[in-house]
Amino acid sequence: MSTIDFVIITGLSGAGKTQAMKVLEDLQFFCIDNLPPALLPRLVELQMQSQSPRQYAIAIDIRVREYFSDLRRSLEWLEQSGHSYMIIFLDCADSVLIKRFSETRRLHPLVKGTSETESIFASIAEERRLLSEAREMAHVVIDTSDMRPMDLRVRINEIFAGVPLKESVFVDVFSFGYKYGAPIDADIVFDVRFIPNPFYVDELRPLTGQDPRVAEYVLKWPATQLFLEKFSKLIDELLPSYVQEGKGRLSIGIGCTGGQHRSVAIAVELARRLEELKIKARARHRELGWSSS
Questions:
Q1: pLDDT confidence of residue 1
Q2: What is the pTM of this model?
Q3: Domains defined along the chain, listed by start
């Protein structure tokens, strides 16, 4: 369990703060909803007087927007007092927020007038503006657009179970062939057609990159080894930043001409190297229609 004294949950209305607080409550945090930041020092005093100090989770949202100017000052006070804290910002796509408000029949806190349909777009935009500084200050940003409540629960549990950031994200490495179209759902796409093509070796042509003979051919070239070394190191170094921006899954497309030989062998080897770096990774093959792990 984390030794963080204070967790501050903030973010957009409808992004999941209530669910996040329920998870933290289950993790034995003492949860307080909408505490004005200016009262944090008083809360610390109460904690210090307690015979059994607890961890606190504090939800702050736009309903206490007049107090957001005190947030940075209060956090500086916490640091000077030797107390650790973490800010988690919950983000979400506008379209998803609108759908959630519609389904729950709740009014957005900033909606003015009687016509929510006309003003909710402007209200969300205004809320983003008002919370922009809090988002910049956040240690972790979680995008809940595609998350179920259970997914958010898992993500928060990962954060406070002491799991390193890079171990809390799943890397999906998939091979594909450009002749069948470039992927539109990948976060990163890399072209490995710089590697000599096994297709032009008669005994290798009918095989795939899953065959050890093809893999040996693809991996023997210095350029291949240089790519794998540099690329796996780059992913390892950047992954914590992806996680902080709310990524729970990073998709990497590895492409060659037909998606049968080079991209398959590279995807398998890249996933293996990432696993060696303690990164959860899996290789799958779009043109072969199956996963290698």
A1: 42
A2: 0.56
A3: 6-163 (3.40.50.300), 167-291 (no CATH)
